[in-house]
Amino acid sequence: MEATERPSFFPFRAVVAEKRRLAPHFMRVTFEGAELRDVLDAGYDQRIKVLLSLADDPRWERSPLLTDECREQGLWWDVWRGLPLDRRPVMRTYTVRAAGDGRVVVDFVLHDDAGPAGTFAANARPGDMAVLVAPDARSAEYGGGIDFHPGDAGEVLLVGDETAAPAIGGILRSLAESGWNGSLTALIEVPCADDRLDLPVPGGTLTVEWIPRDGNRRGALLGERVNAYLERLGSSAGAPSDASTTGDVFGRAQKGEATAFDEPDVDRDLLWETPDDARLTGFYAWTAGEAAMVRDIRRILLRDHGLDRSRAAFMGYWRDGKAEL
Question: Residue 108: its pLDDT value, please?
Answer without folding.
Answer: 97
